[in-house]
Amino acid sequence: MIKALFKIGQYGKKAANYTGRAFYTRLFAKAGKNVRFFPFNSDIHYWNMQVGNDVYIGPFACFICGVAHIEIADKVIMGPNVTIITGEHPVDLRGRYIADIREKQPHEDMPVKIESDVWIGAGATLLKGVTIGRGAIVAAGAVVNKDVMPYSISGGVPAKHIRYRGSKDELIKHETSLYGKVITDFSNVP
């Protein structure tokens, strides 16, 4: 009996997220086609986000972009519990509690950009001002505080370059088959 009720609850939650997606997609500053996410299981600042085509955002996402925006290109997939934060609190003002400070300097809020063909693993955190390059992979649980090079795999806390997704020749062939030409500079790839 309990298993049956649990299954009914799971189907109800899935149906609510599916139907709610149609409404919440309109709240994005810009949204492409086939954007899949879980509005009732996530905390997303829609009004300051641009999302491309064929994007999957896993459940329990937390995207906080008060001043600076988040830009997600086409064909991006994210696991569950991904966090993106475009700002930070000022910490250098003396004589005031951090929680009481409302004004920010430009360097305290910076956009986050995710280029196309990116996979961000479960529980990863992207911090202000980072760009995740085309074709990159961010490992589960990584904390990204610096740009991730195109077609590289990064992981750790803080995230560091682990390796590229293939050799220079393999990546050129991959990009040519997807885009019809080479767009990325592969001079750093061995």
Protein architecture, described:
There is one protein chain. With 190 residues, this protein is α/β, with parallel strands linked by helices. The protein contains 2 helices and 17 strands. The chain has helices at residues 2-25, 168-179, and strands at residues 30-31, 35-36, 43-44, 49-51, 55-57, 62-64, 70-72, 77-78, 83-85, 112-114, 119-120, 125-126, 131-132, 137-138, 143-144, 152-155, 160-164. The chain has a 7-stranded mixed β-sheet. Strands 1-4-7-10-13 form a 5-stranded parallel β-sheet, with no helix packed on it. Strands 3-6-9-12-15 form a 5-stranded parallel β-sheet, with no helix packed on it. The mean pLDDT is 87.
Topology:
Layout: H1 2-25, E1 30-31, E2 35-36, E3 43-44, E4 49-51, E5 55-57, E6 62-64, E7 70-72, E8 77-78, E9 83-85, E10 112-114, E11 119-120, E12 125-126, E13 131-132, E14 137-138, E15 143-144, E16 152-155, E17 160-164, H2 168-179
Parallel strand pairs: 1-4, 2-5, 3-6, 4-7, 5-8, 6-9, 7-10, 8-11, 9-12, 10-13, 11-14, 12-15, 14-16
Antiparallel strand pairs: 16-17
Number of extended strands: 17
Low-confidence stretches: none
Spatial strand sequence of the major β-sheet:
2-5-8-11-14-16-17
* Percent strand: 15-25%
Précis, in short:
With 190 residues, the protein is α/β, with parallel strands linked by helices. The chain has helices at 2-25, 168-179, and strands at 30-31, 35-36, 43-44, 49-51, 55-57, 62-64, 70-72, 77-78, 83-85, 112-114, 119-120, 125-126, 131-132, 137-138, 143-144, 152-155, 160-164.
